[in-house]
């Protein structure tokens, strides 16, 4: 395990480290049961190395353009406003996870991909089960997305945009990755971020995103790991060829060599952006610009609508999950 920022950057960006699951040691502590002995299926780019990985990243980067993000911004603002209206109509207390933190990114990723939000209960519960390690959930989501892709009318969404460029199998796997990665993580950052802001009312909340990403580091231990293709000398020790290294992003984001007084939340911390909460190197989070946009809008809209937002009960963390997140966050105003 590496826990310093320097080693984390090396392991995540040095091509002598591979992200192919079949090369990793099965005993490794991991986000998912590490039973993958086969090379990644077509389109399952998260577990590929360059140049296969680069091919898919290029295709996808063409979809995650600045233009598409600009088009999405007013949509995200409208979604946030609608969810806030729903909270006002309901009246306090409200569970912020089910009323806001989960539906916001879930609706955004649906619009981006061209997946009907009407099916959200199905894909939200299966996404959670998939991150817990359920193979059944992977199969159910794959079947759902394949049917959707087969019957899809072309539109201004990502699935339509990629349809001519990849096979149905590739597109199904790409859509599955984006659907799951696109809402679980952002929902976690909204709920835990609001919980954290409520605990620090003395701090200026106008620009909290980067420090919250650093401080909370919701993707912690287990998810990012890499296999050494040859012997590599790290800062303080040597990794032998064939060994697997896991990267403790939470520790790297609390590395005192980079962050002064690292365990203290300081929303005005000038070095906050040095964090590795979105990873680093070739597999740097594909959705980081989108996630940053969603978080900026979500925190701002909530605290503008409810300047007196407060806890209305104990937040309930989700247990045994590879992503730090809340199951429930009771709030009132
Ligand atoms: C990769 C974190 C939101 C899509 C990653 C990685 C991290 C991460 C740490 C690197 C994993 C590794 O190197 O092994 C986060 C956090 C988010 C977030 C903290 C929210 C605050 C999103 C969103 C999307 C997304 C909104 C999609 C719309 C992806 C994809 C990858 C990835 C596709 C794999 C990239 C690759 O392998 O090339 N994310 N993510 N993420 N993320 Fe995110």
TrEMBL record:
Record's keyword annotation contains Iron: yes
InterPro entries: Cyt_P450, Cyt_P450_B, Cyt_P450_CS, Cyt_P450_sf
GO terms for MF: heme binding; iron ion binding; monooxygenase activity; oxidoreductase activity, acting on paired donors, with incorporation or reduction of molecular oxygen
Organism domain of life: Bacteria
A Pfam family: p450
Keywords of the record: Heme, Iron, Metal-binding, Monooxygenase, Oxidoreductase
Region (Disordered): 1-41
Protein name: Cytochrome P450
Species whose genome carries this gene: Nonomuraea soli
């Amino acid at each position: 395990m590496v826990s310093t920022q320097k080693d984390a950057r090396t392991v995540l960006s040095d091509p002598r480290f591979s992200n192919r699951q079949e090369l990793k040691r099965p005993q490794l502590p991991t986000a998912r049961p590490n039973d993958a002995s086969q090379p990644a299926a077509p389109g399952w780019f998260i577990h590929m190395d360059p140049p296969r990985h680069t091919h898919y990243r290029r295709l996808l980067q063409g979809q995650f353009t600045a233009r598409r993000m600009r088009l999405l911004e007013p949509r995200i603002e409208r979604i946030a406003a609608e969810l806030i209206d729903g909270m006002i109509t309901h009246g306090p207390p409200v569970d912020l996870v089910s009323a806001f933190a989960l539906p916001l990114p879930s609706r955004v990723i649906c619009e981006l991909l061209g997946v009907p939000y009407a099916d959200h209960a199905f894909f939200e519960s299966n996404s959670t089960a998939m991150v817990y390690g359920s193979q059944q959930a992977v199969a159910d989501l794959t079947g759902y997305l394949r049917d959707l892709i087969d019957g899809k009318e072309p539109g201004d969404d990502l699935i339509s945009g990629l349809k001519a460029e990849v096979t149905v199998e590739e597109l199904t796997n790409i859509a599955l990755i984006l659907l799951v990665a696109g809402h679980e993580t952002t929902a976690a950052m909204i709920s835990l971020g609001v919980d954290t802001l409520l605990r620090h009312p003395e701090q200026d909340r106008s620009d909290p995103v980067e420090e919250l990403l650093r401080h909370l580091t919701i993707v912690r231990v287990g998810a990012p790991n890499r296999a050494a293709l040859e012997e590599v000398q790290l800062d303080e020790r040597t990794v032998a060829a064939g060994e697997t290294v896991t990267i403790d992003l939470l520790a790297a984001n609390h590395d005192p060599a980079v962050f002064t007084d690292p365990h203290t939340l300081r929303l005005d911390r000038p070095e906050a952006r040095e964090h590795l909460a979105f990873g680093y190197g070739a597999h740097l989070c594909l959705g980081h610009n989108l996630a940053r946009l969603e978080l900026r809008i979500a925190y701002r809209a909530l605290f503008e609508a409810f300047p007196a937002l407060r806890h209305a009960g104990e937040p309930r963390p989700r247990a045994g999950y590879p992503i730090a997140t809340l199951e429930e966050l009771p709030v009132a105003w």
